[in-house]
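Appendix B, record 7
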Amino acid sequence: MTSFGRVGELTTSALLVSILSGLVVAYQYEVADPFISCAAMEALIPFGPFFRALHFWSSQAFLLLLGLHIVQSIPRLSSIYATVEGRIYWTVLVVCLVPPAVFALFTGYVLRWDATGKAAGMIAEHLLLDIPVLGRTLDRFFVAIANEGLNRVYAVHILLAAILWGIGTWYHTKRVFLRWWAWFAVLIASGFVSLIFHAPIDLPQQASGLIKGPWFFLGVQELLRYLPPVVAGVIYPVMPVFALAVLAWVRDKRPWLWFIAGWGLTYLGLLLLMSIR
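Structure tokens (predicted):
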């Protein structure tokens, strides 16, 4: 099997570990009292810290492996997605995998409702409300923290996990056979990391100074200092997704590849700048 197939198996395995460990965490999670339930998992529930950390680290691994898998797919566009049907297929995959994966991970940070989670949730709601015309509708569907607490965020988090599994396995490959080495490699690696590093949670008394959001959101958080919310929090993050979707439809891919690479370097710079503040 090529490295492309191996990374695909590892990506699917990480998603499966994330979903299964998420079911264990969800059994103990109380959306009406999110922070207390997360803290109770760390302090009172047997193996609670391990399963919470396993869910956290396997989710991080899934997002990183998904990014690597997409990068590996780009050189294969001309051969695999040469037909119109193949191009539509690629576009659907990009649009239905990348934004849901990022937002699912983002809502996971919000749901723990510590200092970082509260900041991330408030920023997300304000960004959606700043979108002209559709802002309130999008906020009501995806976040609605001000009116419903974390109920809508929790429902969306679960829905996105189902979408990722459905699109990433059934639609993407029609049938997925995970060989034992891929499953155990991800399970053992993420389990080992979970035994050493607990999933982060901020104590209220430690929430002083600048509160930073999730690591992958730091670039957007930094850009919000300089640009209007809609540009920094909506248009700018959507640009690489649009460029990836277009790749299958253009003959000369170089300008779009340079654009994606430039966006990535710019975002990395913003992320590093925010991380050292």
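Remarks on this record: The first helix runs from residue 3 to 28. The CA atoms of residues 89 and 189 lie 32 Å apart.
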